[in-house]
Amino acid sequence: MLVEVCANSLESALVAERAGADRIELCCELAVGGLTPSYGLLKAVKNQVQIPVHVLIRPRSGDFTYSDAEFNIMLADIALCKELGFEGIVSGVLTKSFTLDVERTGKLRSSSGDLKFTFHRAFDWVKDPLRTLKQLDDLEIDYILSSGQQKSARLGIDLLSDLKQQNSCIQIMPGSGINSSNVELFKNKGFNVVHLSGTAMTETLSNAPLISMNTGGFLSDDHLVVTQFEKIKAVMDKVK
Fold first, then answer.
1. In 10 A of CB 219, how many CB atoms?
2. Which of 9, 38, 142, 181 is most buried, judged by most C-beta within 10 A?
3. Could you give the domains of the chain?
4. How far is residue 66 CA from its own chain's centroid?
5. Whether the Cβ atoms of residue 124 and residue 151 lie closer than 8 Å to each other
6. pLDDT tens string 45-69
7. Which residue from 66, 90, 30, 6 is spatially nearest to 219, judged by alpha carbons?
8. How much is the CA Rg of the chain, to the nearest whole Å?
9. Backbone CA torsion sign across 22, 24, 30, 32
10. How far is it between the farthest Cα atoms of the chain?
């Protein structure tokens, strides 16, 4: 069984490699489901990690429906990953009606060239997973990362098994909540690959800071935080 570890930093990637992981999915900001890592992190991991690395291409948190500008950023990030010599891309696009955006996902796939391509957990939002599986198969996607449309892969194992049993070349990669106490369940069910982060919160400061820099109100699946013209203009009018 291939074990892919979702690493959010150079340290996490090096730990995963040292522990025997087969592959890394590199990202940042696990708290929002992962975002595209910085150029500096990409370079550091490429220079120091020997096992294959697949890079998450997701320009922001929230939903998986992107503007033209955001989509162009995704294409540019894929081009960079190809230039740097990474082995795979993890990405995907949905429509606002929770169906696969076939055209845009196809463009991401074709832009990836010979790199392996994983359709990420946006799959867990689609209304018709079996139809989406067929569409992704037609696009020659290599992996689907999914929790079986449940809060954890353990809870979603029935759908994951149904997907695996379809006549498809895509490998179904269970992810979310997988650990040493339940991974054998997926192995016994015949899955050839699993995905996990294996993380724990580690203390960085001995004393709590005066104020928090985390803003919970900025986190949403169906809203985006966007600078408003009127608010900036009102300030500029007062000071200029």
1. 13
2. 142
3. 2-200 (3.20.20.380)
4. 15
5. no
6. 999 999 999 999 999 999 999 999 9
7. 30
8. 19
9. negative
10. 68
